Amino acid sequence: MELIENLKWRYAAKAMNGEKVTQEHIDLILEAVRLAPTSSGLQPFEVMVITNDEIKEKIKPVAWNQSTVTDCSHLLVFAAWDNYTEDRINHMFDLTNKIRGFENQGWEDYRKMLLGTYPQRDAELNFEHAARQTYIAFMAAITQAAYEGVDNTPMEGFDPAALDEILGLRKKGLRSTLLLPLGYKDVDKDWLASLVKVRKPMSELVSLVE
Ligand SMILES: Cc1cc2nc3c(=O)[nH]c(=O)nc-3n(C[C@H](O)[C@H](O)[C@H](O)COP(=O)(O)O)c2cc1C
User: Fold this and answer.
1) Environment class of residue 34 by beta-carbon count within 10 Å: exposed (0-12), middle (13-18) or buried (19+)?
2) Residue with CA at minimum distance from ligand 1 atom 6
3) Among residues 61, 37, 208, which one has the least CA distance to residue 138?
4) Protein residue closest via CA to atom 7 of ligand 1
5) If you take atom 29 of ligand 1, which residue's CA is the nearest one?
6) What is the pLDDT of residues 12-44, one digit of tens each?
7) pLDDT value, residue 1
8) What whole-number percentage of the chain has pLDDT above 90?
9) Pocket perturbation via mutation, ligand 1, pick of 155, 158, 163, 197 by most ligand atoms within 8 A of CB
């Protein structure tokens, strides 16, 4: 199937049936997250994979009681860095040098530029920048899940401060940004499952500048 057909198939599932997603599928979805592009390649976020039913039950009330939080197989929590620090920036540049096996002056100059800019900025501004990167990886996960026929619910409808508290994220220098329940739709309970996907026509979305 063409990827575009998978994207037409996918939708934000409103009810899931509890069926488990195989580890192989989960690993591929997480690999898509890992491969997602990020600004300066910093990958300023982490992903929690929650399978524990008690923890899912604790999260549900702070996520507008959305049923897929508990009916899903795996609940992904995207959490962005709360700030850019020298250590965090250096870690990614050092990792790049280690993996590529050489240092490059242009790359080192770029490191210095980031070190001279990001850590001095307001933490909230840095968090917002890091948070934007999670949305890119989020879409990679959604796309890969669709490619594998795994249903999911993109979810911003939750109280991030409450979720951070449940998962102890602030202590780790992280703040939750997005949830992605993964599983299989419950066709009988999901009011959206049989409805036609609605999107603007291309003419309202794209302008050609020649
Ligand atoms: C960032 C983001 C946050 C969303 N939050 C929720 C949510 O909390 N609960 C929900 O049921 N759907 C949520 N959605 C799903 C959208 O409502 C849905 O993608 C949109 O209406 C288009 O429909 P479709 O994805 O089913 O084709 C979210 C989608 C995105 C991209």
Assistant:
1) exposed
2) 155
3) 37
4) 155
5) 154
6) 999 999 999 999 999 999 999 999 999 999 999
7) 62
8) 100
9) 155
